[in-house]
Each structure stands twice: as C-alpha cells, then as structure tokens.
Amino acid sequence: MSNKRMKAVSKRITTWSLVFFITFTAFAKEVKKDPQGKHEANPVNTQEEINEFIQHHVKDSHDFHLFSYFSGGEEHHVGFPLPVILWGENGLTAFMSSGFHHDDTGHTIVEKGGSKFVKLHGKIYELEAGASGVHFDEEHHPTNASTPIDLSITKSVFGILVIGLLMFLWFSKLGRQYKKSAIPNGFGRVLEPLVIYVRDEIAKPNIGPKYRKFTGYLLTIFFFIWLSNLLGLAPLGFNITGQLAVTAALAIFTFVIYMINGNAHFWSHQLWMPGVPVLLRPVLAIIELAGTLIIKPFSLMVRLFANITAGHIVVMSLISIGIVMQKQMTPVGSTALSLLLSLFITLIEVLVAFLQAYIFTMLSALFIGMAVADHDHEHDHDDHGNEIPDAEDVRADFI
C-alpha cells in the first residue's frame, strides 16, 4: 500500500473515531433543567434512575423499544408495538401494546372486550368491574386488580421466533446442499464445522453408540442458546437467555429426554444402588433421585440464566460510568473510560456466549449419556492391545 493511500485510510479512521467519540460524549453531558424544572436531556442521570433502567433492560417487555430522544421538551420513543394477548375475566382479549402509550406506572387504562387493563412494572393487570384506576396498598401492590393469563408476544418471544426462523432457513439450506454435494457452499461452510464439532466432540464422547438419536436435540439447543446470547449483545435490548422462563424450558426439555430414555441400569442405580449395604440403599436412593429430579435441571436452568443476566448487568453498569462519574473525571474522561471498559467486557461476553452454549449442551449430553449408557460392555482395543476409552470413560473423567 502506498504512503498516500495509507495516509488517506488513517485520516478516514481518525475522522470517524472522532465523530464516534464526540457523539458518545454528547450522551454523557450533565442534565440541565430550565426554570420550570423540565429536563432538557435524558433524565436517566442519577444512580437510582440508572439502577431502575438496568433492571428494566434485563426484564422482558410487551413492546420493542429501540431508543428514546427529547424534542421540544417531550420524550419520544422509537420502536414498534407487539401483540398483547390476555385471558381474563371476560375471556380472550387481544390488542397492540401501543395502547398503553409506553406507560408502565398503571395510569393508562386500555379498555378491550369489556375489561380494563393497566401495565405496572412490566406486568399487565385487569381492573375490577367499576374501577376507574388502580389502587395500591402500603407495599405498592394493586388491591383492585388481578393478573390475567398473559399469552402475549413479548420481546423475548419475538426474538425466539426470529432465531427459530433463521435456524430453520440456514439448516434447511444446508440439508439441501448436502443432497447435491458433499461440500456445502456459502454460509453452509460456517455451519458445517460447528455441526461436526457438536456431533464429534459433545454427542459421541458423552452419549456413546446411541448418539445419533440425540444429536438433533443437542444441535438445536447449542445453536439456539449461542444465537440468543449473541443477539443479546446487539444494541436491540434482547435478553432471551436471561429470562428464567426460557432457561427453565430448556432445562425441562433435557430433563424429560433423559428421564424417558433412562434404561434399566440407570434406574437400578437410582432406586436401589448395587454394591452397597442394604441399609444405605434407601438413603442413596433419596440422594440420587434428588440429583436427577431437582439438582441437575436446576443447575442447567440457573447457570445459563445467572451468567447471561450478570453479563448484561456488568456491561450496562460500565456504560453508566459515563454518567455517574462526570464530576470526578469530566464528561470526556468518564465517557472514554466507560467506552474502553464496556468494549473490553463486551468482547469477553462474545466468548461467554459460545461458552455458555457449549456448557449447557455438554451437560445435557452428559446427563443423557448417563441415562442411556450400558453398564456391561467390552472396550475396543487398538493395534497394541490397549483399551480405547469409550463414552462411559469420558463421562467418568468429566465428573
């Protein structure tokens, strides 16, 4: 590359870096108030408001909110509504979330199907007949409203549908390519190594000869969790695997699979452990059943939920440094520190996104392999007469 071209590229990079830095700094300026006390800029500027904003970010929501801005002294929201589907006192009711006008305090009332609904702290409540507003007790809980069955298409559900559609399109295309050629092309070349990795490094070693029966499930949860984690790092507000309901559903799927496919050897060790004194067998049965029925699915659920939620909170907390430390470091200094730290943690979160998908898939394969493993088996031997480790040996080493 010539010196002239290198200087042009360097100048362009410097220009865009300054534009990005100045733009980011603009969001870190202190909030000023006019004589009437109205905010002229983003009101999220105190520690309490930041904490509330972070808690709102990691929760699910009934609308898709991209960002907000102030114009003419008023706050404007940019995004799009999502369908609200409720089963309440008067049966099924459906409307768009825009009916609440971004109100989350319970003041805006939506009247549909003979019922009145309000949204409070992310939850939708149905007012009692004749009520003109929601009333609260001393702990700020509604006293004249009940919670309907919420079947809404929330932001997390919307994200799940998007990821499901992408996976269906990608792997359908990959399957069609394999029918025509042994070597895929295009984006299929990116998917193929990951598919082979899950099959050869996770399914085969942990499940053994019966791995083909469960490889489809393991591939599904691996790519779903990985893509959900990556989508959560995008500036769109998704936190799919940070929702306890999602991780619980994934854990239940694994639980049902290894419970249904457990063989006689597995259940004999669960209920009546061989090779130990008879008096100890009932105690061991309780311990083994507790691990199988509670501890294993609970660990799958909480590990994924806690790691992803913690990552989001850490990134948002580091971004908030640009606001809370303006007086100590000046707006430029606090914004630069916030940008540097949040960028570093975000890069680590990219690794964590893959790591958490790998761990969940690995543990699922391990639990399934323990349930379907045959106890009495002969080891294969190599040319020198040495035993070749099989799936049961791999599981024992992992444990």
Describe this structure in words.
Helices cover 57% and strands 12% of the residues. The longest helix has 47 residues. Helix 3 crosses helix 5. It has a 4-stranded antiparallel β-sheet with strand order 5-6-7-8, with no helix packed on it. It has a 3-stranded antiparallel β-sheet with strand order 4-3-9, with no helix packed on it. A two-stranded antiparallel ribbon has the order 1-2. It contains 11 helices and 9 strands. It is α+β, with helices and mostly antiparallel strands. The chain has 3 domains: 28 residues; 99 residues, no CATH class; 234 residues, no CATH class.
What would the keywords be for this entry?
3 domains; 4-stranded antiparallel β-sheet; 399 residues; 9 strands; 11 helices; alpha+beta
**First-last Cα distance:** 54 Å
Strand content: 5-15%
Unreliable residue stretches? 9-42
Rg, Å, rounded: 27 Å
Work out the helix count: 11
Helix/sheet category: alpha+beta
Tally of distinct domains: 3
Largest sheet properties: 4 strands, antiparallel
The overall average pLDDT, rounded, is: 82
State the helicity in percent bands: 55-70%
Q: What is the compact description of this entry?
A:
The protein is α+β, with helices and mostly antiparallel strands and about 400 residues long.
Outline the secondary-structure elements.
Layout lengths: L2 H24 L20 H12 L4 E9 L2 E8 L1 E6 L2 E6 L13 E3 L2 E6 L2 E5 L17 E2 L2 E2 L4 H26 L7 H20 L4 H22 L10 H17 L3 H8 L9 H39 L1 H4 L1 H47 L18 H8 L1
Helix pairs in contact: 1-10, 2-8, 3-5, 4-5, 4-10, 4-11, 5-10, 6-8, 6-10, 8-10
